[in-house]
Amino acid sequence: MNRQAQAAVLFLVGAAVLHAGLTDLYLRYVKAGLRPLLLAAGVVLIMAAVATVWYERQGRGETGDGDGHGHVHREPRVAWLLVLPLLALILVSPPSLGSYSAMHAGTALQAPLAYPSLPATDPLPLGVVDYAGRAAYDHGRTLAHRRVQVTGFVALAKDGTPYLVRMALNCCAADAQPVKIGLTGTIPPVLQPDTWLQVTGTYTAKQTKDPVNDGRIPFLDVTAAKPVPTPHDPYDESWNN
To answer: Taking the chain, what is the end-to-end CA distance rounded to the nearest angstrom?
Structure first.
């Protein structure tokens, strides 16, 4: 690989990063708040590629050849490994983490620092993390006599217990951890893992322990459920805001 090939690969990687950042593709890799940094990284890579070509031409213009001795130095062949992230960005569009990852990791639910007041909406839309935190650690005091509406994907325990799950994100998909809500009540007779559901129901004091890490998994008493499309951003970032 010579310098011009390096510059071409840098340019293409930068362009691919920019493309991911300008579309929804980046949400498969990192949290929404990192979009500006991702775009900046793409611009820097493209600028580095342009600078590499410019300095290479300047050097050749001064010496008349690659090194002043009639030949061009080439970089080690291992430099072609730079092509791998480019191929990954172009050829692979990974799906968001789903039920398999959720059931092989313990719930990441933690006690909330506070329980903000809730609007009087009926039914009340809540995230999985918000409902689970209030149900598990506040004993449902802010949820009593309220109908809530929660959206997540389906995961099934080994004993068949259905969970509604969202993967909570700190930074990127590599550190995503599940937060789980058990479902009881009027549950659809057939549930497919990774199906996204919008569930309406009420608080119940029922809880269980996650078999992976003994974390708390609260339940929701379901009164209605319907399948919904995968959301624009499948990950939940509310737990670390």
So the answer is: 45
- Cβ-based neighbour number of residue 241 at 10 Å: 5
pLDDT digits (tens, 9 = 90+) for 178-204: 999 999 999 988 889 999 999 999 999
Pull the structure tokens for residue 115. Answer: 């329980």
pLDDT of 3 reads 73
Residue in 110, 61, 78, 86 with CA at minimum distance from that of residue 8: 86
Burial tier of 235 (Cβ tally within 10 Å: 0-12, 13-18, 19+): buried
**Are the C-beta atoms of 194 and 141 separated by less than 8 Å?**
no
Cα distances (angstroms) measured from residue 127 to each of 62, 63, 176, 210? 63, 64, 16, 19
Strands (DSSP E) along the chain, which ranges?
124-126, 147-156, 162-168, 177-185, 196-209, 216-227, 235-236
Task: Say if residues 44 and 114 touch (Cβ distance below 8 Å).
Answer: no
CA atoms within 13 A of residue 2's CA, in its CB half-sphere: 9
Alpha helices in 64-105 (DSSP H): 83-91, 99-103
Kindly report the pTM of this predicted structure: 0.70
